[in-house]
# Entry
Amino acid sequence: MATKGHKYIFVIGGVMSGVGKGIAVSSIGLVLKQRGYEVNLVKIDPYLNVDAGTMNPTEHGEVFILRSGLETDQDMGNYERFLGRDLGPEDYMTSGMVYQTVINRERALEYGGKCVEAVPHVRDEILRRIEAAAAHNGSQISVIEIGGTVGDFQNALFIDAARVMKLTQPDDVAFVMVSYLPVPNTIGEMKTKPTQSAVRELNSYGVQPDFILARANHPIDDKRKEKLAISCNVRADRIISAPDVRSIYDVPLNFEKDHLGDKLLDALSLSKEKEADFTDWQKFVDATHAENPEVKIGIVGKYFDTGDYVLSDAYLSVIEAIKFSAAEVGVKTKIDWVNAKEFQSGENVEKLAQYDGIIVPGGFGETGIEGKIHAIKYARENKIPYFGLCYGMQLAVIEVARHKLGIEGAHTVEINPTATHPIVDVMPEQKDLIAQGNYGGTMRLGVYPAQLKEGTIAHEAYGADSVEERHRHRYEINPEYIEQLSTAITFSGTSPDGVLMEIAELPKGEHPFFLGTQFHPELQARPLSPHPLFTAFLTASKKRSGIK
Ligand code: GLN
# Structure
């Protein structure tokens, strides 16, 4: 059963989803960490996918890759960015993962002839995973986000597991409900009723929240705090105001105003290990809001009719990585989503002249490919800083092969399996997996080391001879073409054995910044440690904005 003395905070959504539960969990993690506690954050996704890797990012948001290679929900990215450290595969679970373990165990006769059921067997597996995450992290406090909203069918077993933990360790478990208080236009008043109903719903599971985070457009006033307190059976001082703020990074600072950190420690019978110090965080937040000169970044991708909201979710880590480096470089960035299809046969590319920097982010499949290659060509020929992330690197190498080296028919076999010049080829071990239709969790995933070449942009930016970065791809620069390609583009980062090309760039004398990475640098960018390659890219973009 549960580890005695270890503290658990379960965060559950009320009223509706999409009101910032993940950011609340990230911020709780930070305010506790700043008080001297080791904290781990756990995300529970109640869907049946075994991991998030098979889901479409334009519908479900970015797939965030952990150091271990596990493909997870974008919230894990926020957790890592707020905590400023890596999380492990133990810190993430889906219903699919939990059920798969139980079913595999059943097939191995490990239940000794018993009837295997959701309760207690699946519930026990949930508890085992939560405890394993705590043990693996060696943390003192775990903050666990139960995905979805109270009342959902899918997350009921997880809430029940939390209830059982509270029952066995009443002093070690606290519940936080992140709720929403609407202010209907016609009434003009903040309404508490939906939250009251959500708390009652949670009560019907046998769970009583200790805290309510009152998400709303505005701060919640004392009158409504009192009302919620009396009707929901929650102390008024534990109803925390969580209004919309300027950025997600303001949220922990806002929680500080309501002393959430101290109150959580109090609820868990913990004392402060040290006074919370937010100096560096505040400095970063101030820098993001500073009135700096603007640079315009075009992100060229395949975009469907999704609207901005979903797009910014699909490329969340890229946007955040830009923000961190922008704060460091002292610029504000304006990001435009540029649909690659506009340039499919080379038309319209001149419109890219307005940008100070161009990014082609990670991607899969054929849509807009030729448009992206035309955009990259335009950036190269017109010396616009260019940063290619994964697919964006592969396509940059194809562009250089086609137009600088004259290798007509240079392509990736992802699009054209019979390309005359398969510059980007499938990795040998991937061939069988694809043939078997075995797609889940089988790409080259997670952290791999890269050796950097002296005298290159990459080496200078990192200030190191080797780095570790996170990957997610099936295809690679074809080793058979490396000698020829190297006459036109520098492979400034390679796997330690020199076989796999990890970074490609043009020399500084030829282009101010033209660089692509086979890995995803955005996944390791953090507010207080921006990624050196994003910083180098924005430094070049700032320079262009000044002379454009
Ligand atoms: N589709 C490419 C590959 O699988 C690139 C993947 C990516 O951009 N993450 O290699």
In short: DSSP finds 19 helices and 21 strands in the chain.
